[in-house]
Amino acid sequence: MESQAQLSPGTPRFDFDSGNLALDFANTAEWHASHEPVEHLPAYADLVAWGAEAGLLAGEQAAGLLAAARRQSAAAGAWLGRAIELREVLYRIFAAAAGEQPAPPEDVDALTAFWRELAQRTRLEVSPGGLGFRLEELPADPLAMLWPVVRAAVDLLASPQLARIGQCADDRGCGWLFIDTTRNRSRRWCSMESCGNRAKAQRHYGRVRAQGA
After folding, report:
1. Cα 2 to Cα 44: distance, rounded to the nearest angstrom
2. Three-state SS for 178?
3. pLDDT digits (tens, 9 = 90+) for 46-80
4. How far is the C-alpha of 48 from the C-alpha of 46, rounded, in Å?
5. What is the pLDDT of residues 192-211, one digit of tens each?
6. What are phi and psi of 159, to 5 degrees?
7. In a domain, 14, yes or no
8. Across the strands, what pairs with 177?
9. Within a domain: residue 2?
10. 44-53 vs 73-98: helix crossing angle, rounded to 10
11. pLDDT value of residue 113
12. How far is the C-alpha of 22 from the C-alpha of 152, rounded, in Å?
């Protein structure tokens, strides 16, 4: 049954500190590189909540999508399925980039299909700053939160930042993706407070044992 989760602006549920919107979306499954990822988008209402927290959906638009999902529970499941498909495609593409490996061709094809769908919702505009793109706002579009993600992903693939994508090196399979902004690309962890601290403690324990032996 579709979740009836309510949007609570004062209680953030998601992380948005990877350095890129597409990576933020890819990170909506925790322990993504493990055998048992933890799903943070179990229902369409959670996808809407993510879009609202990301600043991609206005309050009225989010409320309208939740109401539509309650009326069309089967359709809401399909909308969520499309979102999860995109997320997994992005995760595999950018995890490959983090490992300096080529992206899986089938995932590139899938992202291309999403990009073509985005192109149908985009128009060129001339402004004082030059030629640009504008995404047409369709309040009733159940996948409205995905199109900025697709645009961010395509822009990242064509950006020098692609070479700075990193992945948490935690051996339990954290798999969190991020843009490494360190000067020598030395970042290894999602954060020092979690996986980094654990690795540090493991190294310390190993040294103590070696000295004892």
Report:
1. 7
2. strand
3. 999 999 999 999 999 999 999 999 999 999 999 99
4. 5
5. 676 956 645 454 344 445 55
6. -105, 155
7. no
8. 167
9. no
10. 60
11. 97
12. 6
